[in-house]
Design brief:
The chain is an alpha+beta fold. The protein has eight helices and five strands; from the N terminus they run αααββααααββαβ.
């Protein structure tokens, strides 16, 4: 594969900037997979480094789960510019997040979204639940066991900490960062609601 073919393939597959694809081709001219990993890593880093607050631009994504339409999701996703709000990748991200919410039923966006009283009550419940199994163990060991259970709980109830439903090797946070890196500006999940038919 020529360097030009490599650049074109990277751009088509990852929708990354031409500059980034050229960088990857210069660094790994004979290894497409390594070049692809390089581009994805840079896109993720760019996404994580975006610190500006998202503006009032964005979309409301509404999804009803087929075939019975007994699960519904409404998601507010914001960005900085109207240009990005109309971008197909931005809308694709909103849809992917809605599908994730429908299939995995998170309760919060991330750990910061969890009320302090819920966090404390959960940790207390986990400690009490372990009960006898913690007796006689050093304090550091107890803390590590509870921390492990808490981390697992976060991966179930927090959207960003969940395994991505299309690829369990990634967290939703990783996928989100890749899209932010691709789009080149701050994106923020503001809120979401998930309904199940018959649920109060």
């Amino acid at each position: 594969m020529s360097k030009l073919d490599l650049i074109v393939k990277l751009k088509e597959e990852l929708q990354a900037s031409l500059f980034l694809c050229k960088q990857a081709a210069e660094k790994y001219p004979d290894d497409y997979e390594k070049a692809k990993e390089f581009v994805m890593l840079k896109m993720k880093e760019k996404g994580e480094n975006q610190k500006e607050k998202a503006s009032q631009n964005g979309i409301i994504e509404v999804y009803s789960h087929e075939p019975n339409r007994n699960i519904g999701v409404m998601l507010e996703l914001r960005c900085q510019t109207d240009f990005v709000a109309r971008n197909e990748s931005f809308r694709e991200l909103a849809h992917e997040l809605a599908l994730q919410i429908a299939s995995m039923a998170p309760e919060y966006i991330d750990e910061d979204d969890i009320p302090e009283d819920v966090r404390k009550a959960t940790l207390e419940h986990m400690t009490n639940d372990l009960g006898e199994s913690l007796k006689g163990k050093p304090e550091q060991v107890i803390q590590n066991i509870v921390k492990g259970k808490y981390k697992k709980w976060l991966s179930q109830v927090c959207l960003m900490e969940q395994e991505y439903f299309r690829d369990s090797s990634k967290k939703v946070r990783d996928v989100f960062s890749e899209y932010v890196g691709k789009l080149g500006e701050t994106i923020k999940i503001v809120r979401f609601v998930r309904w199940t038919l018959g649920q109060d």
